[in-house]
Amino acid sequence: MKLITAIVQPTILQTVQVALAQYGVTGMTVSEASGFARQRGHTEVYRGTEYTIDFISKARIEVLATDEKADRIVQVICDAARTGSVGDGKVWVSTLDQVVRIRTSETGDDAI
Asked: 64-77, pLDDT tens digit by residue?
């Protein structure tokens, strides 16, 4: 079992969601995130005062997957989120030892 985590631009979140649904992903968790990488922060002027924005808003997507489907899900996310601009995001895959569906007590791939 794998946990696929993706950090993407918030404006592209719906596109990624639709692409994952079309592939057959039936569940995901989305949360707001902020941070920076190569694009660093930026400065903005508000009422004549310049402010440095150190962190940029991002969306964090988490998807549980079987080992067989993980690589394809990563590809679906990358294809949907790619704009070619700095700040498109990152995707990483973590191996899970155990997953339990609380409602039914199903474990492993059945819990996904």
From this structure: 999 999 999 999 99
> What pLDDT does residue 19 have?
98
Cβ-based neighbour number of residue 8 at 10 Å: 26
Is the separation of the CB atoms in 87 and 11 below 8 Å?
A: no
What average pLDDT is seen over the chain? Answer: 90
Query: Are the beta carbons of 59 and 9 closer than 8 angstroms?
Result: yes
Q: Does an H or E element contain 42, and which?
A: strand 42-46
CA-CA distances (angstroms) from residue 70 to 3, 29, 30, 33, 74? Answer: 8, 16, 18, 23, 6
Question: Tokens at residue 82, please?
Answer: 């790619």
